């Protein structure tokens, strides 16, 4: 097996930093939401529709599903394409996938803040983080 080129090494290092930052942002926001709800420092507003938690969780699932469809939306370059084109495709799909997963997690966690129903929102945020780990 040959060693990866300098361009590939730099590419993976940059993506690693970006993806780690996105994932840590979700984990930190999840921790803040958990603390605010459990400490009593924040209570969900009154008068919101009861189906809001379900809607926010469905929107989060749509985001997570879209992340899985990215390779179909943006197919890889043709076999034999230049390394730069393959790396650009990989970077775009990786960052977009992580951003969609992050968006889904944040929508679910905002749903937790608005409704106080923690189980579904935290489950979807956890699913987003797990899919981030496996996507890397």
Describe, in short, the structure shown.
The protein is mainly alpha-helical and 136 residues long. It has helices at 6-39, 52-73, 83-115, 118-135. It is built from four helices and no strands.
Would you spell out the secondary-structure blueprint of this structure?
Elements: H1 6-39, H2 52-73, H3 83-115, H4 118-135
Features of the shown structure:
136 residues
What does this structure look like?
This protein is mostly helical. Helix content is about 80%, strand content about 0%. The protein has four helices and no strands. The chain has helices spanning about 5-40, 50-75, 85-115, 120-135. The longest helix has about 35 residues, at about 5-40. The chain is elongated.
Percentage of residues assigned to helices? over 70%
Q: How big is the Rg?
A: 18 Å
Q: How many DSSP-defined strands?
A: 0
Structural class: mainly alpha
End-to-end Cα distance, whole Å, is: 21 Å
Question: What would you call the shape?
Answer: elongated
Unreliable segments of 5+ consecutive residues: none
Topology pattern, helix = H, strand = E: HHHH
Biggest pleated-sheet summary: none
Average pLDDT works out at 92
The number of helical segments is 4
What portion of residues belong to β-strands? under 5%
């Amino acid at each position: 097996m040959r060693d990866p080129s300098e361009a590939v090494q730099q590419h993976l290092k940059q993506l690693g930093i970006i993806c780690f930052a996105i994932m840590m942002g979700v984990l930190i926001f999840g921790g803040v939401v958990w603390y605010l709800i459990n400490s009593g420092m924040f209570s969900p507003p009154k008068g919101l529709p009861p189906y809001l938690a379900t809607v926010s969780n469905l929107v989060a699932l749509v985001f997570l599903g879209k992340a899985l469809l990215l390779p179909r939306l943006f197919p890889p370059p043709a076999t034999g394409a230049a390394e730069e084109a393959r790396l650009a495709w990989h970077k775009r799909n990786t960052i977009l996938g992580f951003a969609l997963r992050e968006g889904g997690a944040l929508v679910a966690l905002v749903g937790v803040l608005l409704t106080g129903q923690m189980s579904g929102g935290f489950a979807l945020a956890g699913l987003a983080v797990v899919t981030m780990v496996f996507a890397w």
